[in-house]
Amino acid sequence: MPKVSIIMPVYNKEQYLSSVFGRLLKQDFEDWELIVVNDGSTDNGIKIIKSYVKKDSRIFLYEQNNLGVSAARNTGIKKATGEWLWFIDADDLPDTRFLSSVFSLDFNQNIDIVVGNFQCFREDRTIINDVGLKVNGYIKYEDLPQLFMNYQYSTGFWGYLWNKLIKRELLVKLNVCFNEKLTLAEDLDFMINLYQNKTDVFSVPFKAMLYRLDSINSSNEKEVDYSKLLELHLKIKKWIIDDSGYIEYKLFFK
Question: Do residues 228 and 182 lie in contact, with contact meaning Cβ atoms separated by under 8 Å?
Fold first, then answer.
């Protein structure tokens, strides 16, 4: 069983694939498997993916009809065998030292989620900003809602997937998967389902990802259902105010 299962859904991202594969193969930490889920791509990316599958026995390709990124990630979860899951996108750039830096630490085995930093960059590789918590180490559950409110709505920090490592057994225990009916903020919905179940979170000062701000949009998702987004933010409101008692945010959610 590998230490980490890296899950990467792909839909028409051929122009970025060589870069992301190159960064993954340069990881200082080698105990991983890469699960690539081709979500019905119509470009030539499949040829690039298959060439890397031949190069490295840790890379596995699964193909499905175009069902959306959530369905592709759910397929990845089902195929994963690692202790930890790292969800990445095919148009971003994983940091080559993130995994080795995280697993050089002696953190508690009960930790469910490890959160790292990230940088945002443009197509010309200009770095726009660095995003990370000012708090490192174990985060008490009662402090998590406050940190969520401090960072999420200004940076998206807590909703992104690719700056986090998640214990696979946590998803099994909670029976959590991605909501395939959501076509926007499906990653935030997924993470909220974990946070509200009193998960143990550990923050590290290491960069996990270079996030591409202006990648070419090749999504084939359905039209956004804003009623589903409303339900998501009502779920967040319940967690923050009703369950955690942070009543000072009532006006914010109103």
Answer: yes
Q: Are 76 and 179 in contact (CB under 8 A)?
A: no
Contact 17, 61 (CB under 8 A): no
Check residue 216 and give its pLDDT: 53
DSSP state of 224: P
pLDDT in the model for residue 234: 96
Give the predicted TM-score (pTM) of the model.
Answer: 0.94
- With the C-alpha atoms ordered 44, 209, 253, 143, is the resulting torsion angle positive or negative? positive
pLDDT at position 215 is 60
Q: Looking at this protein, which amino acid is placed at residue 219?
A: S
| Buried-exposed string 9-44: b where 16+ CB fall within 10 A, e elsewhere | bbbbbbbbbebbbebbeebebeebbbbbbbbebeee
Q: How far apart, in whole angstroms, are the C-alpha atoms of residue 232 and residue 234?
A: 5
Please name the helix (run of DSSP H) or strand (run of DSSP E) that holds residue 174, with its range, or none: helix 168-174
Give percent of the chain above pLDDT 70: 96
Coil/strand/helix, residue 7: strand
**Strand 84-87 versus strand 4-10 pairing type:** parallel
Query: What's the confidence (pLDDT) of residue 143?
Result: 94
Name beta bridge partners: 138.
Answer: 202
Q: Mean pLDDT throughout 168-179?
A: 96
130's tokens: 């660095």
Distance, in Å, from the CA atom of 98 to the CA atom of 110, rounded to the nearest integer, reads: 20
Q: Are 33 and 82 in contact (CB under 8 A)?
A: yes
